[in-house]
Each structure stands twice: as structure tokens, then as C-alpha cells.
Amino acid sequence: MKPAKILAIFAFLCFIPACLTWFLEKPTFNLKEVAITRFSLLDVRFLFGIEVQNPNTFDLKLRSIGYTIYFNDQEVGKGSMDQEVLIAKSATTLVQLPLQADFRTLGNPLKEILAGKDLRYKIEGAAIVKATLGTATIPFSKSGEVKIKKP
Q1: Fewest CB within 10 A of the end CB: N or C in the chain?
Q2: Which pLDDT does position 9 carry in this prediction?
Q3: How does DSSP classify residue 27?
Q4: What is the 3-state secondary structure (H, E, C) of 86-128?
């Protein structure tokens, strides 16, 4: 094979992963539930149930996700998940995201959590998803109201 053909094939193969965003319908992220998994004297641990919906006709792998959580417009904490999760084609998968927050950062929302009131929340971040053709970073931001499940 001639060097020019080899170079052209190599360039084409390098170009394919960059085209992923042309074929990828972005998955959606929706907060389904928030639960308190542990209270201690210094902190509280939450588990956020996020539904990831894959609208594509091919499977995606959620490689990692980084996120920041806000309650009543106050930042509660940041977290990440680096465990790979399969998001089946045309399906929704529940992904559990942990967050540890100390009482100093919770402030006023802690009173409402303990009273069992609904809280305004915002979760924003970025997810790295992998498909057959390559990898893409998908930013997301969701807000609404949620009632936190206590242990």
C-alpha cells in the first residue's frame, strides 16, 4: 500500500471519534430521589438517584460524572463517580451519586431537611459518555423541588 493511502486511512480513523457529536443524541439527566444515608455529629451523607435516559439506538457507557449540588441556592457540596455504568439503548438507567456534606456547608437547608419540607435543588455537572465511535462530554443542569427521604 502506498504511504499516501495509509496516511489517508489513518487520518479518517482519527476523524471518526470527533464525529460522535454528529450522531449522538445527548442523554438526559433527571433527579428521581434524594435520600439521607447517614447522619453523624459532623456530617450528613446523601444518595442522589439520577435517571439517565439514552435516546439513541445504541448503548452508551457512562464513564464518569462530576457534579455540584445546591439546596435553596446554597452549594451543599461536590462529588464524582468514576464507576462505569451501561446505559442501554432507548432506555433509562438509575445511577446513584453519593455526596458527603458537613453541617457547616448545609446551613439553613438543614432545618428544612429535618422538618421534612420540600427543598429547591439544583444539580449541575458534566458526564463523560462512551459509544462505539468515541467519547463525548455532556454538560447538564437540572433544578426543581424535592423531598428528602430520611433514614
Answers
A1: N
A2: 55
A3: P
A4: EECCCEEEEEEEEEEEEHHHHCHHHHHHHHCCCEEEEEEEEEE
Cα 68 to chain centroid distance, Å, stands at 10
- The secondary structure element, H or E, covering residue 124 is strand 119-131
- 3-state secondary structure (DSSP) of residue 111: helix
Quote the pTM value.
0.79
- Domains in the chain: boundaries: 3-149
Neighbours of 112 (CB within 10 A): 16
The CA distances from residue 80 to 13, 58, 137, in Å, are 31, 25, 14
Fold adopted by 3-149: Immunoglobulin-like (2.60.40)
What letters, b where the CB count within 10 A reaches 16 and e where it falls short, cover 66-77?
bbebbbeeeebb
Mean pLDDT of the chain: 83
Q: Are 37 and 84 in contact (CB under 8 A)?
A: no
Q: Residue type for 19, please? A: C
